[in-house]
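hey m, so remember when u said the tokens were messed up on ur end? i reran from scratch. heres the input so u can diff it against urs
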Amino acid sequence: MLYEYAVDPKTVGASWENFRYLIEKFGFDKGRLISWFPGSWCREVFDTAKASDMKTIQLQRVTEKLSRAERYALVRNNRKYRPDLGSWLPNVLSQHHENPFRAIITSENPNGLDVVLLIDDLDEQHPLFSADVSWAAPRSAKGIAQDLRLFLVASKDIVIIDPFIDLRNHGADYTGPLREMFSVMTSAGRTNVKIELHFRTHSSRPPIEIVERDARRWLDGVIPNGCMVELYEWEEDRKLHNRAVLSERGGIASGEGFGVLADEASLDFSLLATSDSDERIRRHRPANNLLKLAQPAVRVDSDGTVKRI
């Protein structure tokens, strides 16, 4: 599961020991994400580190690791920093009241709050710091989207791989989860979102001419203004059995398909290693010629326009 933590930038940058310990505990592959709050979080970490007794070589490592963390460990969750509240902790507590963090990590806890974890006492066995990399998610449209929420709002574009995706909803509803995913992302302020759907060919699938004619109807009311869906139908390949939702941030594998069934079953999700998710995306890029398209890919825009790509 993915959890968002408020992590005090001054605590992170106070020493090389603090920085190295904390920065390595977070990532989309670890289940813990650092809230990019305030927007100057990375700069505040570095400024604090620069004012500490860190050596030049350590400061260089701080720069490198912060750059990597921006892509693989930090999440912007549409939070507003209020200068009138004063310092970091009052702002975090205000945000926690509106949209709870999993926990708050800092170096002092003047009010003795249970949600605050002190760096000196931090332990991966603590209930608020432990993170399961595998979990069961409700197999409903809203359940899938909500369990993927932090991943969705942090990602630029989404890649969904499921060999049995069928927007005609023959047996399972794939458009419901798609609609809810778009809703989660746009509600968080995301615009121009693209979701790619990658699936396996089958004799029952319609030819490209029918896809071009009917995709608008299949996705009616699903795609928000300015967003798009791309459809990729691949020739038979065993790698297409590896269902997952991916992005430039990482990936989450699923033991079952992303279509909603009437029996309200569950999905078994598990976080992917960064290298694994990157490789899966690379494999499904037509230009890389690692898989073969069964027919041309198409893009469906929010206004219903369907184009070959």
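this time it looks ok to me. The chain has two domains: 3-121, 134-308. if urs says something different then somethings off w ur setup not the seq
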